Amino acid sequence: MTMRSKPLRINGNRLNSTLQSTCSSWGALSNSTGMRRLALGNEDKEVRDWLVAECKALGCDVKVDQMGNIFAIRAGTSKDEKPIGMGSHLDTQPAGGRYDGILGVQSALEVLRTLHENNIQTHCPVALIDWTNEEGARFPGAMMCSGVWSTKSSTGLEACYAVKDTEGVTMRQALKDTGYLGDTPCDYRENGLESYFELHIEQGPKLEATNNKVGVVTAVQGMKWFNVRVSGVEGHSGTTPMEGRSDALVTAARLITAVSETANSTRLGVATVGVISNDTQSQATIPSGVEFIIDVRCSTDSMVDALCAGIFKSFDRILQQVNNGTSYQIVRTWGLPESVFHEDCIEAVRSAAIDEVGVSKIMDMKSGAGHDAAWTSKVVKSSMIFVPSKDGVSHNPAEYTKPEDCTLGAQVLLQAVLRYDDKVREGSMSQA
């Protein structure tokens, strides 16, 4: 075992080169720096195969669980401790960027490489994790497989297996087709962690606007998604009088506007409608059915509930105003309760960040986006590290984080893991 007489440094050039080359090889959009690497598609399978081979070359034991989550575990000196986890996801939005999720997995790999080439033996095992289908872009349900692992998601293993993409392929079939339908239980009680650290781009403008370099993430805000169906009556667009129409799209347009207006007026949080579908899709037919999805996010669960109540109250008022025979139904399709991270992990991140950039260049933050760490935090000590996003842009081909910021984030990740490990070795860690 090599003692750490001076702080280890990750290889920033290697990290950034690996990140860019693997993105260019698997999932790059033509004529841009964007990415399309949907969960369990060909590009995702190929980059997963590459990742597994890289981790095995470092001597890691690789396990794949029932939802395709990859756990690459580097042994520690203790035979009794669970692994300290670190990672994120490799899947992207249909037109996403090169950093969301990908930076977290590639940085975890760089940590493993640094430990390996310096012959560092940690007390706890250290695990790289690639969580499956975090984006939910192909198979609806964000952070799907970390949610199953946590056992706290309302959508369990079998329900997730049955989820279909737009081509009718089930999640289970895609796992089987790619060779990532593993036999390790997707359950933290049978495949557990000591703790979990996730490096991620901020996906917002705050770090850049305040000229800070590292975000110490203390929590993830609560969020809920709802499917709304508005029903009316089909009719001929030329022969049905205006006063006799039951136009579902007209009502839906009013309801969608109310979503944004309610969020603006209450200042409770944010609410978005990003998906709309019309049953008829004919310019000559009055729409009889329209569906849309509402995404509501607030700092606390009580604020989420209050904003949702305000939105739905406005819906009832609008239905009375339009008085056109339309109706609506709401089904909650997904939710993530507010997630508060553990002080032991937060302090490991904070102290590592201070050592790198000083206290004046870090800030405590609550994440507005959902992350796999939100689910892990329900069952193991967890925290996150944020690095700046240029102009706050994400889920977009223009998403960008400077190479030096990627390097800094990976260095903070390495040192946070080592600090946490030292405390476990010393027996000075608090009980969860």
Can you put this structure into words, describing what you see?
This protein is of the alpha/beta class and 432 residues long. The chain is 36% helix and 21% strand. The strands form three sheets. Strands 1, 2, 3, 4, 5, 6, 13, 14 and 15 form a nine-stranded mixed sheet that branches. A four-stranded antiparallel sheet has the order 9-11-7-12, covered by helices on one side. A two-stranded antiparallel sheet has the order 8-10. Helix 3 (102-117) packs across helix 12 (403-426).
Please tell me how large the radius of gyration is: 23 Å
What is the element string, with H for helices and E for strands? HHEEEHEHHHEHEEEHEEEHEEHEHEH
Q: For the residues shown, what is the average pLDDT?
A: 96
Low-confidence stretches at least 5 residues in length (pLDDT < 50)?
Answer: none
Helix percentage: 25-40%
Largest sheet: 9 strands, mixed
Distance between the termini: 29 Å
Strand content: 15-25%
Which term fits the overall shape? elongated
Secondary-structure-derived class:
alpha/beta
Number of strands: 15
Quick take:
The chain is 36% helix and 21% strand.
Question: Topology, please?
Answer:
Blueprint: H1 12-25, H2 42-57, E1 61-64, E2 70-74, E3 84-88, H3 102-117, E4 126-130, H4 144-150, H5 157-162, H6 171-178, E5 195-201, H7 206-209, E6 214-220, E7 222-231, E8 235-236, H8 248-266, E9 269-278, E10 285-286, E11 289-298, H9 301-322, E12 327-336, E13 339-340, H10 343-357, E14 362-367, H11 372-376, E15 381-387, H12 403-426
Parallel strand pairs: 3-4, 3-5, 5-15, 6-14
Antiparallel strand pairs: 1-2, 2-4, 6-13, 6-15, 7-11, 7-12, 8-10, 9-11
Helix pairs in contact: 1-3, 1-12, 3-12, 8-9, 10-12
